[in-house]
Write a structure and sequence with these properties.
Length: 740
Amino acid sequence: MKQLLTIIAGVVVIVSMVVFIFTLRQVREEEASLTDDLERRTALLADSLKESVRPSYLSNATSTIQSVLDKFANRGRLLGLAVYDDDGDLFSVSADLPFNLSDYAAVPKQAMDADSAKGDFLEVQDNGKVYIFAAPLHQDEKIIGVLVLYQRADYIDAAKRQIWKTNLIRLLIQALLFSIAVILILRWIIFRPIITIVDTIRQARAGKVAEGAYTVKSHSFFRPIASEISKMSKSLLLARTAAREEARLRLEKIDSPWTEERLKEFIKSYLKDRKIFVVSNREPYIHKKIKNEIQYTVPASGMVTALEPIMEACGGLWMAHGSGDADKLTVDKNSKLAVPPEEPKYTLKRLWLTDQEVKGYYIGFSNEALWPLCHMAHTRPIFRKEDWIEYRKVNGKFTQTLLSEIKDTRRPVILVQDYHFALLPEMIKKSRPDAEVGLFWHVPWPHAESFSICPWRKEILGGMLGADVIGFHIQQYCNNFLETVGKEIESIADLEKFAIYHKGHTTYIKSFPISVAFTAGADGIPEPKSSLLEDMGIKTKYLGVGVDRLDYTKGILERMRGVEFFFDIYPAYKKQFTFLQIAPQTRKAVEKYRQFNDDVTREAERINKKFQDNDWQPIVLLKEHYTHEKIYPLYRSADVCLVTSLSDGMNLVAKEFIAARNDESGVLILSKFTGASRDLTGAIVINPYSAEETADAIYQSLTMPPAEQRRRMKKMRDSVKNYNVYRWAAEFIRAVTSLG
């Protein structure tokens, strides 16, 4: 519609300009014609009246002159007449002349001075434009006085206005008729076939039978395109059918790679079309108003990165907090919308929280209590009773909404995500014991002694144990959780099965190392490194990259100090190496995060000031959000990727970097305090607290032979490929449904 309006507006503007030019010309011609006619008729009238006025003027017969002037005054457009003597004084004037002549005596004087007839157009108050014409009276070639005629001239302006009005009305009618014609032509001849073609392609992409192209064939204008699309749709449909059949045959083969198609077949075969329900705090798509236009973004979140391809493959319902300022404008009456926006595959249901609930449940308890409690990054957790009350309240709110969604679903499969909803599994099980509930904890689980400082530890553990399966990234977190439960609540632990018996319910504790959709790294043609980095002002030979939310657990400050130490001990790399840190801001409402944002900015400025040389600076800090489409080319261009988290459940940036490197080059520097360091043994593993280790790892990366890079990268790519996010989802869902 926007393109249609643009076309119409463009044409109307051009036509309006043409009409304006022609109307202006017409007005000028009409004005010249009417003016010339008025001047000519006034001059003729003056010549005829002079013969009647002169004898009486010479004989000083004022009454006769007055009768002559009154006789011709107010006839047609003639307002009145006047006679001036040779001294320029008023001799006689017609009755009822509607203005003071003394204000307009310049024209008679000019006529006597020039000894010739003079005319001029003047604006007269309450009478509009008036044409004043003065003709000298002679006696023996001597000027004896002046005869002055006052003609209405406002009809000339009225005629001009009428031309403008008529042409404007004509233009509006023409524009309206033209717009209707253009809309009908474009809609039925162009846009409708295009929409049909787009729908055909969309159906083909979704694996549905695409019949639209056959209809478009009847339109000769698009017949060649429609014909090719029809053939392409058939080929794509056959390819999808073959892929599904292959996925079905590979379903039980352990060594077969997990793909989106295989996961779909697994869900269809294993769940028998049972619906999947995902519950998380963060939504996969956030709608915001940007310059009066609603746009959506995908948040920087490892959880979203992992779950989004699963939901696209399996469908179902994803329930999350609607946090965008335009979220309410994009949902239906049930607070739902189909996503992804371009190609909907599942349903997103948004829940609305009050400012008080967000402050207590999210900012307070989730991010100022549980987050630092689980991440051993030397930040003291803050426990407030009012935050805990809001946390319980919001967990109950999500529970009630979820119960209403699953009321007609038998044995629903519910996948609860992360520490925001530790109480939800038990709440769900109390009302729906038939529900099969899995809780995946995306962050580390601390040692029992560390967790024991939480005042509401027993309630949290009891809520979590309502789940049938609790998943962690690595076995160490499972061990920590079992130890914590054993010390805090009455339960029986089966160490052989890694199960906990509590209040008549069994919960299994399993490790499921989360991953990424490996195929994403092969998409698109790599953009040249020079052109990609040109806009960022990066022109160095070597590039290092870091991609993290601006979070104190990610080790960004420690990473920058490692880069600083690298230039201190390897000064030859100045102006040869640039480190690019992409760090979108997060949790701006939390004081610790606002302070950390300022600390990172100051540290980058300090290091840049220390080493900066002309247009080169060692650290480029970008705080805006980058989509995966923008980040993957940067991964491909980087010589080294730094992941230096101080504490991290898994860290998918490391796996995204590996998935992107289909050239099998580049080096990954990885913190030993990440879950990913257990899987990615080809990385250079460091202690992020040591600037010396970080600096040496950067030097080792930049000097590593290509063959060694390929060996390490191939090893890590095989690991990510063999245990991608589709396999993670299949194993987690299988555990939830088989053990529940």
